[in-house]
Each structure stands twice: as structure tokens, then as C-alpha cells.
Predict the 3D structure of the following.
Amino acid sequence: MEQNDTPLKGARLERCWDARFVSEEVGVSLSTYRRWEAGRQAPNQMSLQALCRLFGMSAEELGFSRQPRRRKRDQAQESYAQALLLWTLGIDACWQHYMSGWQEELERSLSGYLANLTRPTLTPGPDQKTAAGLMAQVYQLSALLKLQRGDFVAAQADSTQALVYSQLAGDWNMYVASQIRLATILSARKRIGSALNTYNEALRCVNTHPGRISPLLQSWIFAGLGEIQATMGREQEALRFLQLALAVFPAEPENDPCYPYTRCDRSLLFSYEGLIFLRLGQPKAAWDAFAQIDELRPPPPERVRAEFLKHRVYTSCVLGNMIQSCIYLEAAVRAAREIGSDLVFGEIYTLYEHMTALWGGEPRVRALAQLFQR
């Protein structure tokens, strides 16, 4: 080894590695790596960690124990970039928690993200759009939590905020996802006309930006439009949108770029398919559609399961199957409590009232009253 070789270069030569190989493994250009070896530049913290992992050596052993002092501004930028990464991972976990029904834990977490992201979202800079995209997700989550609490007005307000931040982020997929969330909230409020307009606005975005909106979101738009059309009694249009939703849904939805903040698998399609047939007065076809959710492996998360059980109760009632209705209602009540959803619990209670109107004299139905006495 020559006298002027740096520890990094010496470690590479001992392993008979090519400089290009090391640069590619670490994820930097060859010229950048050569500057490290020559001692003319020090790697940033992430690159240094990658070097240490690759060589199995410490930073000191590689000759970087005394890096030049960076300016405070550079240190602040690096610290902020690391914070953004942590917030991104944290919000991704929040979506998983939402699907699992961790309602109270999420409400506490989201207030922290709102406090941390407000300033960087409103401060012009290279990371502003990333922060705005995260803020849009936080408001989507907040809207969904408020919807589950039955606070429709606050949920709609948060959905509108999600739209604003997704526009600031310049992320059209996020914008369409926010539109869909708003449409589902409007549907829950029985604002069918407004929900239809919101879905159509999302569809216009798909047509305006061809090839840029993910297949998962496109399928969701078509499915939502199908349900709205079925609710309005337009069978031909409803079935046409259902076929479009089935046609464009990705074979591996978990690989769709929007999956982390949509968490939509094939249970989404089957749920909408069942709802469309229910709205069209075809309960047997609806039952067959919902049955497909039972066959999914792995099974859908708790929040999807609660909605699915609720639909099963209603479909059983329409089909006139009292015993089946009772069985599914008991399971639906437990599922609604597990996810802490006042909205779903209230809807299940409405179904219970419907069952008492149909079969109130039956002991099996009267016994269900105890489910709502806690």
C-alpha cells in the first residue's frame, strides 16, 4: 500500500474491490467516491453508514473520525431530512393502525404530526412538497377518524384540507385519493349529488393527466361511481362502472404506488360489487359478491371486516334469513367495538331495529338486545 493511501482506499484494496463496485453499492457516483478516497470530501451521515456496513468497519477505522465541521445550515438540513423520513415512516404506520382499528392511539399521534409538519409545509424550500404530501395524508386520516366518530361536518372539513395540501404537494395521485375520501364522506352523509360531483371531479383528473393516476385509484373511482349510479337506480351505468373497476384493478395492489395511503386490496372491489347489487335490488348477487371476501387470504384487516359483517347482516335481512342475520349481527357488534367505530356501531343498531320490526316476536332476535346494553 502506498504511504499516501487513505484508510478507505486501503480497506478497498485489501478486499480486491473495484472503486466502481463500492460506489454502486453505496449509491453514489464514482467521482464522488474517488473524492472520499482522496480525502477531498467526506461522505454524509447516510453514506458513511452505508460504507461502514459494506466494509464491516467503524467510521474511525475508515478514516472519518475527524470530518470537517459542517455549517450549521447543512446540519439543520440533514436533521430535517431525517425528520421527514421518520415522519413518512410514522404516517405509513398510522395507516396500518387505522385499518387495524387503533382509533384512540391514532388520534393522539395525529396531533403531533400536525404540529410538526405545519411549519415545513408552509415554508418554501426543496422539501415543502414532501411535507405537504404528508400533511395531506394526516388530514385524510383525521377525516376518517372523525367520520368513525360520527362527526360528519368535521370529517368533511378535514377532507377539504387534505385536498388543499395535496394540491400544494403537486401530487395528483394524492389529490385524487383526497377526492375519493371526500366522496365517501359525502356518501355517508347521504349527500349523493355532492358525492357524485366529487367522484366526477376525480375522474376528470384521471382524464386530464393520462397515465399519471394509479390503476388502484382509477378502480376505486369507478367502483364509487358504480355505487352512486346504483343508488340512483341507473342499473346500466352502475354495471358499466363496476366492469371498469374490475378491469383496471391491479393484480398486485400492494405494489401500487398509492397503496401505502389507501390500503385497498381486493376486498374493496368485492364490497363495492356487493353494495351495487344491493342498491339494484339483487340481494342474492350481493351475497355472492360479499362471500368472496371470506375467501381472501390473508383475511382483510379488522376495519374492512367490520364493514363486511355489517353488509352481511343487511343482506341476510333482505333475503329473509333470520338465523343468519342474528349470527352476523352478533359478530358485527363485536367487530365494531374492536375498531372503536361509533359510526359502524350505530349503523348496526339500525339494522337490529330493522330485525326487530321483521322478527320481534322471535326469542333469538329478542336476545340480541343484550348486545347493546353495555
In short: The chain has a mean pLDDT of 90. Residues 55 and 229 are 61 Å apart (CA to CA). Residues 72-100 form the longest helix (29 residues).
